[in-house]
Structures are given as C-alpha cells and as structure tokens.
Write a structure and sequence with these properties.
Layout: H1 9-23, E1 26-37, E2 44-49, E3 54-59, H2 61-64, E4 76-86, E5 91-101, H3 106-121, E6 138-143, H4 148-160, E7 165-170, H5 178-191, E8 198-203, H6 217-225, E9 230-234, H7 242-246, E10 249-250, H8 254-261, H9 265-279
Parallel strand pairs: 3-5, 6-7, 6-8, 8-9, 9-10
Antiparallel strand pairs: 1-2, 1-4, 2-3, 4-5
Length: 280
Amino acid sequence: MDKRKIYTVTEVAQRVQRLLEESIGYLWIEGEVSNLSAPSSGHIYFDLKDKTAVIPVAFFKGFHGKLKFELENGLHVICYGKITSYAPQGKYQIRAEHLEPKGLGALMLAFNRLKDKLEKEGLFDEKHKKPIPYFPQKIGIVTSISGAAIRDIIKVLRRRFNNLHILIYSVRVQGDCAFAEIANAIRVFNAMDEQADVLIVGRGGGSIEDLWAFNEEEVARAIFASKIPVISAVGHERDWTISDWVADLRAPTPSVAAELAVKRKDELEAAADQYSRAIK
C-alpha cells in the first residue's frame, strides 16, 4: 500500500500562499519599476527590481486611484503591500496598496508633473484670465467656516465695504476628501441662478501636506472651467499651489484676496464724485 502523501498542484499552491501570507504578510519594500503594463482592466502590473532580484507587483485599480504621480519604468519607488502567490502562473508577487516615489518625495513629484501637464495644456495662459470686476456686489467664498481664513476675509470685506452680499460655501480644506468638496463648491457657485461676481477660494497657511487639496487636478480644472472670476488665496506669500497658477488672480494671503476683490467704499465714492464733476 502506497503510504506517500501526494498533493495536487492546487494544494501545494495554496500551502505556499498561506505560508507566504502568514509568515511575511504586509511589508514595505523599495525598488525600481520595470516591465510596466496597464491593460484595459484598469489594473497595473510591473516588476520591482534591484541589482540582484525581481519581484512581480500587481496594483489593482481599487488602490491606485489615489496615486499622486505618474508611474513609469525606471522610477525608484517605495511600495506597501501583501506578499502572496499567484497560482495560475506558479509565482509569488506583491499585491500593492500604496506607492510613493523615493527621492524627491511623492508630493513634490506630483506637483511638478501636474504643473507641467496643465501648463502644456494652456491652463495657465494669460489669455484665459478673466478680469476681476471693478465693483462686485456679491462675493462667493470657498473655504472652511471654522478656519482663520474666513474670519480674516470677512473682517477685511466689512472694513472696505460693509454692505456687500457675501456667500460662503464651507468645505474641508485638507484631508483625502477636501479636493472633491472644493471642486464641487466652485461648480455649485457657477450653477446658481444669481451668480457671485467673484469667488475667493483658499485657506490659511500650513505644510505642503496641509495645502495639498489645492494642488489636485480636479480643483485646478474646476477653477479653469469657472465662468466666475476666481481669486486663489492659499496659505502665505511663500506658498504656491496649482490653484494659484490656474486662477484668474493669485493673492498671497486670504486677507489680501479680500482687498483685491473689493475696493474701499471711500475710494469708490471719491471716484464716483470725480466722475460726476467731470460730467458736469
């Protein structure tokens, strides 16, 4: 009687998979991207290699949707994922859930690539810039209702022209969902029957991570598509975002944005008086 334990190929493959997932599981790994493939399924496949070894990587579309940079062969990346096996091909692989470039940093690389892309498309061209109205009566503001920026903006607006009509659309200004809320708020303002004369879109200062929502492509395209002139007011004078480049006017701070949006009432009254005398 044959007492040997004989496994099927599937059984061995399943045991190998369990061993890999239980003994190693999730891990961080770095290497160079090669053999990059992006089939119509929406998934991304590539090899992660160094000088002496190669590991296949599967990056499914449910995870790479938030990728902030363009993946390409030769790019050195840091990958987080689960080590597992793929039985149909008899090989082990990493199922990636997060990727970031090594070196420049994910955010700066994403910023520069998106900036170059939009600049080539003409989104920053002066010919697309809409003039800020000389005498706006209705000001739309897209920012957080709980932040310091909104208090600064309202304080300046009231000081310069107290009886303005101010509309505020409160949004989150940082975090994963912030960019979608900001872009949607701009679209909502543009869809109103009685539109604002000018929009101020921004927030107070912070780190590049804090300001990142204003570097997202969806926000940039919403600003560009806006029929209402947009003043970008993100952070401090040293802070530059993609929104600043695509907006009709960039303000170094939210307070300055309010000053650029509305002239002082006494200045307008003096100008009106001067015109009146000139007519007479």
